[in-house]
Amino acid sequence: MSQDFIVFGAPDICEEEILEVITTMRSGWLGTGPKVKEFEELFAAFKGMDAEQAVAVNSCTAALHLSLLAAGVGPDDEVLTTPLTFCATANAILHTGATPVLVDVDPQTMNIDPSAIAARITPRTKALMPVHFAGLPCAMDEILAIARDHRLTVIEDCAHAVEATYRGRATGTLGDFGCFSFYATKNVTTGEGGMVVSRDIAQAQRMRMLALHGMTRDAWKRFSDEGYAHYQVVEAGFKYNMMDMQAAIGVHQLARVNGGWERRKTIWNRYREALADLPVILPAEPPGYVRHAYHLFTLQIDATHSPVSRDVFIRRMTAVGIGVGVHYLALPAHPYYQDHLGWRPDDTPHASAIGRSTVSLPLSPALSDAQVQRVINAVTAILCQA
Ligand SMILES: *Cc1c(COP(=O)(O)O)cnc(C)c1O
């Protein structure tokens, strides 16, 4: 058996994107320019939207922040979200001056529990920020009905869910805003990068402006052969724009998005079948009305049912050359949120229990069949010992 280390979340990089980056570098235009525009057009088409509705940015965190600002979220507002997410979801809310408010997850889907949302709504609640955890779409019919009743903006954190659909509709297009990540480990990568899509074109235009210092014309147009044009600063914006070198990677990653999805689906189903009899909890089978994005395959290893603890399992996997991930320690486990927001793990018991027991297996489309088998053999060996 090969002892080569299996890197968790290894990207699937092909010759096309390597050559496209070189071409972009030789073009002399590295910043936000024609490649970013092409990537926005391709992404919008992939989501069934108009090109103006998609704004490429330098991270999903930036996309979340801009969506909240476009929705008018600010100090004194509350935004409901899930405790089982990456810290960026909550931090983006905090950076608007608003307060994130946690709603516990459904222990089966690991997504925000729609039946627990209403109890957390107050007169200050302005928006809902569901996260399609692991690539499984949230219960959007219920979430959108609550949003309608209480006039809340819905911002979908689609960092795990670029390929997902819910009752035939693409994730990110169900709510008012959809935020995507192209970080190195995500299903589509540009190294670092993100995209925000907006139902409302005027809000997309505002986010495009805010993403580049609040200037009225982007740099590409300023310096292009159309002639120099003065820009005007109309808001105190941010430095959130994507570079052409990143978009050069993204256009080819997006062109292969279905192949990557098929491969991860195969691996995901292989894990489910091969690990079915082990003393762990496997992810739930997705219902027929969704397309799962297969971003994460998570096991729950809890010391009362499994022969080893989650953290011992992680150490043993690493020792045999297999990188694993933890998605996530629930947000209330972190000292910042405890100290500044008073969050306690017991307030969201389902997410906290998942956070203590969850571990994610490698699911990169770049994994070979032999590597997948090596992961299965290692998991089985660790969990079958008495
Ligand atoms: C990765 C991730 C983010 C942040 O994405 P970046 O592109 O790294 O800013 C936000 N939310 C979730 C759920 C994520 O997994």
UniProtKB/TrEMBL annotation:
<dbReference type="Pfam" id="PF01041">
    <property type="entry name" value="DegT_DnrJ_EryC1"/>
</dbReference>
<dbReference type="InterPro" id="IPR015421">
    <property type="entry name" value="PyrdxlP-dep_Trfase_major"/>
</dbReference>
<dbReference type="InterPro" id="IPR015422">
    <property type="entry name" value="PyrdxlP-dep_Trfase_small"/>
</dbReference>
<dbReference type="InterPro" id="IPR015424">
    <property type="entry name" value="PyrdxlP-dep_Trfase"/>
</dbReference>
<keyword id="KW-0663">Pyridoxal phosphate</keyword>
<protein>
    <submittedName>
        <fullName>dTDP-4-amino-4,6-dideoxygalactose transaminase</fullName>
    </submittedName>
</protein>
<dbReference type="InterPro" id="IPR000653">
    <property type="entry name" value="DegT/StrS_aminotransferase"/>
</dbReference>
<comment type="similarity">
    <text>Belongs to the DegT/DnrJ/EryC1 family.</text>
</comment>
